[in-house]
Structures are given as C-alpha cells and as structure tokens.
Amino acid sequence: MRGVNRFFIIIIGTLVIAACSSPIGSIGRSGAYQDGLWVVPTRTQYEVTDRFQRENDLHVFLSDGGSVLPISVEDVDISVIENLDNGTQLEIDEDGTYTFQERGRKIIVVDYNGMNPAQYSVMVNDPNSINEGGDTEGTGVFIDWANGVDTTTP
C-alpha cells in the first residue's frame, strides 16, 4: 500500500508542477509573428482641399506579446508623402490637420516611440479640376466600358 500511495503522490506532484510552470514554446503562433505598430484608417478617399484630421481619420494600435493595445493619436508623429517620386515627408499642422493640395496617391506615415513606422495610402481626387490648371482629366467624365456607352455630359 505504501508503494501505491507514493506513486499517486509523485503523479499528483508532477501534475501540480506542470500546471504551475510556464509553457515551453507556443501553440498556434508562427515564428513570423512580430510585435509592432498597426494603423487602421477610417478614411482613405479625399478630394483636393480636404483636410486629413488626426483625431478622426485613423486609429493606432500596438501589438505587444500577442496583446493589442490602443495608442492615442496624440502620442504619434504623423507625416504625409505627397510626391511619391521624391518621398519627402511633410509634417501635419500643429492643429493635427493636413490639407491635400494635389490629386493622386499619397502615403500617410505614422511613427511611434522609435518603432518601425506604419504606412498606408490614400487617394486624393480632383473632380472639379481645382488645382489642375485647366486640365479636364478627373472632372467626372465616365465611360461604361462594359456597354461601350459614353456617359459624358455635353
């Protein structure tokens, strides 16, 4: 009987130690997973003279050890790349806004605490040719290619 009791005590002790120790390795987590900065845009379409607004146009999150933590947009640095050819980053205004001046694809860059910056692109349209110098491209002329019907208004 003493041998049986000793066996059960050893088994129960081993289970308690295993339950209280931290796991070795990970299940369901690939090696490609990395902590980092995430940006979720709430707006990706603008028109010329529209304003990017820090408080309304994006949400920022930090992934840390599998947890996702919200970061205040007041705590991040945001810049805009207007000209993709030269890559110059323009800081947003002191009031947390930036006015788009030209149409085309723009990149929003978000920096936080020395981490790799997060980026996403937005499209700026110019439907009224505000800043085109008389160019009519992008003025709302549409062609329905499926039916071959020109929907341009004379």
Describe the structure.
The chain has helices spanning 2-20, 54-57, and strands spanning 36-41, 45-47, 51-53, 58-64, 67-71, 77-81, 89-91, 97-99, 104-111, 118-125, 143-144, 149-150. By secondary structure, it is an alpha+beta fold. The protein has a domain at 43-56 and 74-133: Immunoglobulins (Immunoglobulin-like, Sandwich), CATH 2.60.40.10. The strands form four sheets. The protein has a five-stranded mixed beta sheet with strand order 2-10-9-6-7, with no helix packed on it. It has a three-stranded antiparallel beta sheet with strand order 1-4-5. Strands 3-8 form a two-stranded antiparallel sheet. Strand 11 (143-144) and strand 12 form a beta hairpin. The longest helix is centred in the first third of the chain and has 19 residues, at 2-20. The protein is rod-shaped and about 95 Å long.
Explain briefly what this protein structure is.
This protein is α+β, with helices and mostly antiparallel strands and 154 residues long. It has helices spanning 2-20, 54-57; strands at 36-41, 45-47, 51-53, 58-64, 67-71, 77-81, 89-91, 97-99, 104-111, 118-125, 143-144, 149-150.
CATH architecture of the domain at 43-56 and 74-133: Sandwich
Order of helices and strands: HEEEHEEEEEEEEE
Helix content: 10-25%
Strand segment count: 12
Distance between the termini: 102 Å
Number of H/I helices: 2
CATH topology label of the domain at 43-56 and 74-133: Immunoglobulin-like
Task: Please render the helix and strand layout as text.
Layout: H1 2-20, E1 36-41, E2 45-47, E3 51-53, H2 54-57, E4 58-64, E5 67-71, E6 77-81, E7 89-91, E8 97-99, E9 104-111, E10 118-125, E11 143-144, E12 149-150
Parallel strand pairs: 2-10
Antiparallel strand pairs: 1-4, 3-8, 4-5, 6-7, 6-9, 9-10, 11-12
